[in-house]
User: Fold these one by one.
Assistant:
Number 1:
Amino acid sequence: MRKALLLLALGLAACNLQGLPGSGEEGGFQLLNADELRMTIRYGDGTPFEGRLRVLEAEAPVVGGRVYLPLRTQSPREPDPYDLLCLGGGAFYVDLSPTAPSPRGGLYRADGSQAQLLLYPKALPYRVPDYLWYLVHVEEAVVKGGLQECPYLPRAAQYDLELSPGWNLVYYEPEDPGIHRAWVYGRKEAYWKVWAR
């Protein structure tokens, strides 16, 4: 009975997803909005991901690689005690990686095992990302640019942030000595490469 209900839910979700407007594609990058997480998730070989995506109390099925998870109603009760990337605005971080110290959601395969959701922003000039991205909720707008210090980072980082109140996608690229400086990039809406591992 439970399996039948799950199949019915996935079927209904697939019908609903077919009616959703596309998120926009540009050279393999998808236009994502952090308040309305609508994206196509595939493995590196192009196979569509199947399973579910969860953020805090919100959850949505991933059918044929497509998922739509609205986050507008998900408001954290209080900011994190440590503002890991010095974003300001009462920042609250959601890290969806399987190794997150305090998981607040995740990407799960159909068999229940956890996968890693990899997002890489088009704004960065680096070819090989480290996949350190976060969903960040801020109470007020944050604009931060240029080289700035953050006590939680080993060295000054290059900031390119335009965070709007509510949910934003934020990426941290660690420093690679002799190649590039650490980079903190964030927007509510921007182009990202999306895949699962």
Number 2:
Amino acid sequence: MSSPRFYAFDPRATRIGLFVGACVLAVLAAWAMADAREGGGLQAMARAGVSAGLMLAFLVSFHRLRPRSGWGVTVDARGVRVARPFSKNELDLHWGQIDSVRRLGRRGNVLGLFLKEEGRVLVTRHLFARRAVFEELIAALEERLPPPRFDA
């Protein structure tokens, strides 16, 4: 592998879902506030508060999941760098740290990088704009993966 390969995160469908959910929650919060003004009592105020809190959480997630430069997975000769979805930090894994790479989930929509000592790193398919990019990442990792320890 001569040059690093970069697979950018671009969770369009997730961001659209978060935005639509925030809009629905805004309507629900406004409805609950109107009910509270008409004498709906404490229950209506609680519904308005919960709806507004969830709406804020959806909007923060929508903002944090926006595509940015350098946000994704980089595969190079040294190892794998994985950007975290809700953090500015990157997880830098050397090839010697990675024990195996496996697909997880019913449909194989989660890529698991199993480490020798520290557990695992999961990369979900919904972080990529297209399935082809996710499949290309898996192929690149399987190309460079150390051989299994118990190969028959």
Number 3:
Amino acid sequence: MSGTPFLFKDLKKAKIVMITGKVHDDIMANILPNKAELYVQLSPSNIVIPDISYIESILFIEDNTLYIPFEINNNRVYIQSVFEANGKKFFAFTEKKFVKANVGGAYNSGPKFDEYKEIITYYLFEDNELLEIKKGNSGIKLLAGESWKEARDFVKKENIDFNDVKDMVKLLSFIEKL
């Protein structure tokens, strides 16, 4: 099997802010996105799972990524805060989907091992409304409006990968300058 159901392969150093204002610095943590669970290591043999309603934010220090609890389709989940500009907030929701190996057959082109595949969905939050941003031209049109052709050309020129959050930040930065 390849991959993991967790957001990261291993626990990562994080700064966790509780809704009470209490801050836990340099604590090891990981997120199980499909269950919206935050795993926090208090000691080598003690991992706790605080309820999502007690968490205000999680900053994974190594890659400086911020996750917050958010409600999507009546489910509380942890989403990554990707970009903010002009009253707009952009988020990425990462799921891990289990894909069974496709073994057998002469023309087998599927995965050779069971794996957890990462699926990223992007959202725009503006005026208290949450909109899913499609990957591709329809998402570019939603984000860039009348300047969507310039944004599309930027995607081609810069070889933007919609499945890479860092590439999406480049695209969003470019669009905000249009």
Number 4:
Amino acid sequence: MGEINSSNIFTLSSGWSAELSGFYVSNRANSQFINNGTGQLNAGIQRKVFNNKGSFKFSVRDILKTYKNNGLTNNIPNATEAFRNKFNSQVFTLGFNYNFGRSLSEKSKRDTGSADVEKGRVKN
């Protein structure tokens, strides 16, 4: 019984970037249920525009349609049951973001620093 999760972001040229993520959960027992392994692979690509103030992003979730819930129900006397749940988990997304404000990385100028404040408190 185990689990793995990974997410990677790749910086490409000219404002392009890509993301690849996914997870896998192996067979697991939960109460009277034994669930088969399942996983999901996701990918996205992004392009920065308008002097890095905006971006277009296209992403796909569950590319391989591998996210499912299958397994067995056991520990019930005189009964055997298998189950399979199908999900419509594949999703395509196209988005646009735009930052109308100033960048958080821009530092605001200060008139005084902490040393000047401390000088004001200490009087001879």
